[in-house]
Amino acid sequence: MLKFNENGKFTIMVATDIHEKADVTSAKAKKKMRDGRVLMETALDKIKPDLVVLLGDIFTNRENEEPFADFRAAIKRVAQPMIDRGIPFAISLGNHDHDGLQTAKQVEMYKELEGCLIDNADPNITGNANYNLLVYSHDGAKPVFNLWFIDSNNHYEDLSVSKYDIVHRDQIEWYEKTALALKEQNGGKVIPALVFQHIPVIECYRLLRKAKLWERPWAVRGEGAFSKNYYVLKEGVEGYLGQGPCTPDIDCGQFKSWKKIGDVVGAYFGHDHLNDYNGQVEGIYLGQCKTASFRVYTDGARSGVREIVLNEAEPEKYETKMYHFKEELGLEPTSLGPIMRTITDRQSVNLTVARNVLLGAGAVVAAGYGVSKLVKHIKNK
Ligand SMILES: [Fe+2]
Ligand SMILES: [Fe+2]
Known about the structure:
Blueprint: E1 2-3, E2 9-15, H1 27-47, E3 51-54, H2 68-85, E4 89-91, H3 103-111, E5 131-136, E6 143-150, H4 169-185, E7 193-197, E8 208-210, E9 220-221, E10 230-233, H5 254-261, E11 264-269, E12 278-281, E13 284-288, E14 304-311, E15 318-324, H6 338-342, H7 346-380
Parallel strand pairs: 1-5, 2-3, 3-4, 6-7, 7-11, 11-13
Antiparallel strand pairs: 2-14, 5-6, 8-10, 9-10, 12-13, 14-15
Helix pairs in contact: 1-2, 4-5
The structure holds fe (ii) ion (2 copies).
């Protein structure tokens, strides 16, 4: 049973986009795995969470076929820091988790791990890991808070409409039905809840505003349906925007459903490895979490985890903050080159922009030189 401690607190540590891979023997892989493991272990020992949430893209499936034995070994590697400390962990599936081995089989294998709370509440609806976990009062007498884990699937059936899938109507109906049943059991009062889901909802773009021309150097380009514009965070939104949120391009109605039921106070997403903003849309916090790994694209030494501290006395209010590898955890990476190791946050993105500009300028100079040589050659003839 998950429950608040004697001080009325319940702490969650969110780690996302670990992208564990089959390669565990190359020197490069060993360094990246070391950095990822140190990040998880240090964060667990500092935050001392009551629950860890792995927010999807836990595994990168190569060539769509990972042998079962390797998959088991890979998820064990990811889970080991929690198992060693006796900390329970829940899982939301990410798009890359859907790339290979059937997710229903994955869920069964995850369940074999000590402390893993993954579930699939209704096998008849879309996705393979839609479920909820209740957090009880410190005396265990009644549920005070609820945690939703929603499987945001993989790619949309028609890629010309949306690259990423939506949360389907049957999943939303399951959420509403379950939330209303909980409300009835709770004397007609909704149980405040957080949602943990890999792919962000389209409403995350409402935390952003279009960048003015002079803001372009630190703005990011939108993705998919939003790719015509550049964005910065709206005033009042905390954290960092390192890339355009990769949401589905169509509104599936999930956010409206949260508003209608009235239980969701916040929703946290992974998927975009550089983002860790957190802000409110119509009274509901929407936030992202940077990758907790070095086995994927990262933001220098800024990989990290998110802490969420729930409060039994005021369950609608909670506190959250990021712990980054270098900044808050004080760690030194071994897998990054000297530049990526030193720079932080936005600088890594700007460095890529600067490199591309230099390469572009170099190409123009080279082309100009080539043309002038050609003209000279023709004239001489
Ligand atoms: Fe990812
Ligand atoms: Fe993803």
